[in-house]
Design brief:
alpha/beta, Alpha-Beta Plaits, Rossmann fold, 7-stranded mixed sheet, 16 strands, about 60% helix, about 10% strand, globular
Length: about 950
Amino acid sequence: MPDQPSGTVTFLFTDIEGSTRLWEEYPAAMRGALARHDRLVRQAIEAHGGYVFKTIGDAFCAAFAQAHPAVLAAVAAQQALAGEPWGETGPLRARMALHSGVAELREGDYFGPPLNRVARLRDAGHGGQVLLSAVTRTLAQDYLPPALGLRDLGAHHLKDLAAAEQIFQVLIPDLPADFAPLRTLDTHPTNLPVQPTALLGREAEIAAACALVRRADVHLLTLTGPGGTGKTRLSLQIAATLLEEFPHGAFVVNLAPLSDSALVIPTIAQALGVAEMASQPLIARLKETLRSRQMLLVLDNFEQVPEAGPAIAELLAAAPGLKVLVTSRVILHLYGEREFPVPALDRDTAVALFVDRAQAARAGFGLTAQNAPAVAAICARLDGLPLAIELAAARSRVLTPDAILARLEHRLALLTGGAHDRPRRQQSLRAAIDWSYELLAVDEQALFRRLGVFAGGCTIEAAATVGAAGGELGLDVLDGLAGLAEKSLLRQEDTPDGEPRFYMLETIREYALEHLASGGEAPGVAAAHAAWCLALAEAAAAAWVGPAAPGWVARFEPEQDNFRAALARSQGASAPPDLGLRLAIALAPFWNLRGYFSEGRQWLSGCLAAGPQAPLALRQQAVQALGQVCWVQGDVAAAEARFAESLILARESGDPATIALALNRLGNVAFMRGDYAVAQPLWAESMDLRRALGDRALIASSLNNLGILALAQGEFSRATALLGESLAILRELGDLGGQALAVGNLASIAFQQGDYAGARPLYEECMALRRQLGDHSGIAGSLSDLGELARMEGDLARAETLLTEMLTLARAINNQIMEARARAGLGRVALGQGVYLRAGTLFRAALGYFGQRTVKPQIAVCLIGLAGVAAGLGAPERAARLAGAAAALRTALADRLPAGQAAIDAATLAPARASLPAEIWAAAEAAGAALPLEVAVTYALAD
């Protein structure tokens, strides 16, 4: 197969005429016939150097680097199809078209206007016909054999509504040359306007809307959406696509200039050429005219004249062959009406639209590796709104994409200056939204402005709470939300719990916030929004360790943007000094549970810096929470510093509960580093304080810590007793997170004693609890445990799968300590597989992380792993030194290996040990054991 062409490409599009009917009549025979068709067309394309980049049903889409081979491929395909004995189905007749142009090649597919143009050109043809655009004819004609002729079919307006295309037909010897007139706009009565630019994308929307219009039970389809979504352009394209299905044509009526509903019927009559008669009311005359016609009527901008809805219903009742396609920011509320919300553009189409319009503004503009991220970000910031993207692209005349992106903080001011021949409301984004805002009642305008304070949407309850902040509304909030959604200023989405959620596109929200500020309502509404966020966050404070935690996670996730907006406002000079700290402290458990570590750290640090005058107890809690975020990120040094600071503040406040928490977390740091002698008194003092307080949840936590300390020191019976006591309390309290921790630690006891069958159900129970909680960091830990279990059982493939999943999850949640643990585990798997270079890379990556943070137990794992790598690569003395360093560290930590691991390590090192005299091995091993820890790590990291 040839390389996929780029630059100026000639596209050949084909499909089978009447294939739907053939499938209905000959379903069995069509399977074989279609297979033969596909083989013949593909052979012709590939024999002439073409590249088939897509097939859709019976349609082929192929690309050629030059025009004349593409024409010859189409000719060869038609000749092959004409000469094939088709049998029961009769001849399969393919229509083919070719067009040349520059398209963007991305991930194996092409994007850009030439693709739309060639598809429309193909749709204009008939089975057995090959059509060329003018540009392809120019590129190919001098290279075609004399036997092929070209017939000029004249200029035609295709269904893309762009400028007329000069179309040529290829005359193939011994094949039919005369066909019915082309299926173009010129052969059907219509007033659809020619568009200056092609419609990009929207294939799915066009297909779905056309399918609805074709249905016998659908006579009124309303395209809805806010200003700038491209409703008008889409409606025109739908009408053009359906034009040949309406014998009496398709007509568009622009209602935007009207403000009087009584003028709608006269305007429709004028567009259709229906004259008024003195003896008959105009609507009667119009109904009489339409009664026998099969026609599609497009009514554009109906939101201006909603009271005219009943008149449209009258026309539909009188004319069974009439179909009406409406564009409006609000539905008509007529019986039988079907609504079609127009979505924003997808990413690829939005980018293609920006590039196309930017090229019109500045010759030579192109999408490059340097500007592509900025272009994609612009389209995302503009919510995929076609009008906004076109207005932004027009700025390419003087601004680069990066410069446009930087100015989008104030997008309404930037996005002005549209084409002067467009309606005023489409010459700036602000005018487009003004058009909708001015149609609202006063109370609806007030609710709309106040809802702008919500980032990421809101529930009905939240809207009612905050919406009343700027003064009582003279309408029911639910009715107001429904009305704004009908008028396309709000969007409604369903949620898993069945409660609707309402949100604004960001461009519309910016408009609402501007009006909120200009009316002086912003401070009061913002304060109400912050109070609502704080009340919600603090309501969950006691739930993060109980069975209700999963429900709160689901409740908080959609409110993330609202929390962020409230936190950002809380750092302003006029905000109460404790607001940001209270909100950040309340959200810290959610951030940790969901793995939003970097964000949590940023907000806690910012709120501490912004609130130096906050109460001592509040600052202590924030410092403690910040330390915990640093801890789960794996920044052990920063965590220790924050925990030490929180202990000072706690002792200053004299609160035994906060003192116990700070002591407990400092003990965690010491334990992670392998400093068991330091961890023991810290945890013991914390336990004494908690027993004095009688707090059973905290007692369970301390019992768990002392249990894992006993486990690390090989005191299995004591560890089992402590962890069993902890688990009993946690089950009684319904603390799912605590239960997962205790069950996992009990599994580790079985694992370290070689009872793998006993460890598995406990590890799996731990995983199930963590999945129930949505605890991403905990899930990563369980994947590590199950991966190690599979490795010890000899199932290296399963171990690799589990640890790879762990590594992917750890990266996704930015948990660096879990990422390093995953690499160490994968290093052990690679070592077991004999893939020594990969194992060495993985162990060194993990050791680099653990070594910088002096996490001694994991350092020992990496050292012995790298010893195995050295043994496998034929460096026995290096293997002995690293093994000695690992053994000395484990002895200092009183770290007991899982049963069977010592035997695995010994077997891995055996060939290296056997290759050296015993005294040389022993000397190298002793030299490694004598290395200071930092020197051992440096030596191990050397390749």
